[in-house]
């Protein structure tokens, strides 16, 4: 009985492969007499109509038949975009890297860098929701840094690119996200009484993300942590910096030396 089931399963698997192969062969057969221009136009139409799987197939056929020339080069970029729109970030990044490797001096390299940044920027599909809710704790800081680096490359190498302005705006959001991630970690340590770790995270915000909205809270966390660590001089110095830069800060009205303060209420 086991042998029979195995044969049946194997037959079903092979028939499935045959079906896929048949689809590919059908595409190859239909497009056999097509020129590179017609093949590219058809693939581009599929892309514009959000038929991403079909578009990728046609681009692959184009590259295999016409590996040289501008259509094949553009097909690589379009393939990356199709994967990006189809929520396949890993495949999109692989296609972009292949394009960068094969055509380092291509006139559309600014777009390749911009697309790479977009893929990384949108890797977490809930990112825009987190922007609105200011919830950074689950956002991958590596994706933020990689996206920032891609946009920074674009602006540095192609300052006049039509994508530069949008890249610059996204970079500002990414810096805010990086600062937000650090403050989320600092809050985490603060709530658990890991004061030295909280200081280290908060200090990183003050040093690296001075233009973000998290500096005020970072200074407050540093002061409170120093009080708990019984380092009054460092706490007083931090409080003076807080007062100089944020004279109306609500944190200045709190007495961190009071050991009865429930710390977690201030860092949720």
Main features:
mainly alpha
Description:
72% of the residues lie in helices and 0% in strands. The protein is mostly helical and 268 residues long. α4 packs antiparallel against α5. The longest helix is centred in the first third of the chain and has 29 residues, at 2-30. The protein starts with a helix and ends in a 23-residue tail after the last helix.
Give the SSE layout:
Blueprint: H1 2-30, H2 36-48, H3 52-65, H4 70-85, H5 89-102, H6 109-121, H7 127-133, H8 141-157, H9 164-191, H10 195-208, H11 215-228, H12 232-245
Helix pairs in contact: 2-3, 2-4, 3-4, 4-5, 5-6, 6-8, 8-9, 9-10, 9-11, 10-11, 11-12
User: Main sheet, how many strands, which sense, barrel?
Assistant: none
Coarse structural class? mainly alpha
- Helicity range of the residues? over 70%
Tell me the total number of β-strands: 0
Provide a concise account of the structure shown:
The chain is mainly α.
């Amino acid at each position: 009985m086991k042998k029979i089931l195995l044969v049946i399963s194997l037959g079903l698997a092979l028939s499935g492969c045959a079906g896929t192969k048949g689809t590919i062969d059908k595409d190859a057969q239909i497009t056999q007499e097509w020129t590179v221009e017609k093949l590219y136009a058809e693939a581009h139409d599929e892309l514009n109509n959000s038929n991403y799987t079909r578009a990728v197939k046609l681009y692959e056929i184009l590259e295999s038949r016409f590996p040289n020339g501008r259509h094949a080069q553009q097909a690589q970029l379009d393939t990356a975009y199709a994967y990006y729109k189809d929520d396949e970030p890993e495949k999109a990044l692989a296609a972009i890297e292949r394009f960068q490797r094969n055509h380092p001096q291509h006139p559309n390299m600014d777009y390749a860098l911009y697309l790479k940044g977009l893929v990384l920027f949108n890797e977490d599909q809930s990112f825009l929701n987190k922007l609105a809710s200011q919830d950074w704790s689950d956002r991958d800081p590596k994706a933020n840094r990689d996206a920032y680096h891609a946009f920074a490359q674009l602006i540095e190498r192609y300052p006049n690119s039509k994508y530069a302005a949008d890249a610059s705006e996204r970079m500002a959001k990414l810096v805010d996200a990086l600062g937000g991630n650090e403050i989320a970690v600092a809050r985490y340590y603060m709530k658990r009484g890991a004061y030295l770790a909280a200081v280290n995270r908060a200090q990183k915000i003050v040093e690296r993300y001075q233009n973000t909205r998290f500096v005020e809270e970072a200074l407050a966390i540093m002061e409170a942590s120093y009080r708990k660590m019984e380092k009054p001089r460092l706490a007083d110095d931090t409080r003076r910096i807080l007062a100089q830069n944020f004279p109306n800060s609500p944190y200045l009205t709190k007495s961190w030396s009071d050991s009865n303060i429930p710390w977690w209420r201030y860092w949720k």
